[in-house]
């Protein structure tokens, strides 16, 4: 019995009960692969949003398991995830009371969210301020060096009658031109990291059959907000270099 996404990766878009499927598997701690032909007895939809190492669960018959002559770990772990945290503790206690546990079974509450909402919000604010300040310093230094390098050019502009406001406008246009080039490139690199590199390294880090209940999703509002936030930071950082360039003496 195979999940449908595994069948699709094997090139089987229309599975049929009783069809033959060739699979390779490992037995115990052996690194050698054994290839056998199996009969598909069923298939199911796997609702796990993100799979580590791109692994799924394949169910086989008891007769096949007994034919392997290997000792298997019969321990099973069930993870339950509640929507919201308001009644999580009450629901856990209700499960503890109503489930008839047998000998050897245990009930343990392992919270997935260790930090409260206030701590997370504070950490996000501090990180945003740090990134904004770092970006401000970087952009300011780049424009400042550019102004100092071309100080004679701005002096000649003053000589031919260019006003301080016009020189400031030149600096602002330069900052806008840099933003139009740098912001799309930054968003593209961010998308590559978020949807390509991060999931890849998550799969590399988790070498077990555990599954991560985290879904990588796309939201255009995040990219639009990041672009607006970056543009505002660039314009604020260009104010002082523009003022310096406008105050250059002829």
From TrEMBL:
UniProt keyword annotations, A-Z: Cell membrane, Lipoprotein, Membrane, Transmembrane, Transmembrane helix
Pfam annotation, one family: FtsX
Domain ABC3 transporter permease C-terminal: 125-244
Keyword Nucleus assigned: no
Alphabetized InterPro entries for the sequence: ABC3_permease_C
Major localization class: membrane
Bilayer-spanning residue ranges: 120-143, 175-198, 218-237
Keyword Disulfide bond: no
Protein localization: Cell membrane
Gene Ontology CC terms: plasma membrane
Membrane-topology annotation of the record: Multi-pass membrane protein
Protein name (database record): ABC-type transport system, involved in lipoprotein release, permease component
Annotated organism of origin: human gut metagenome
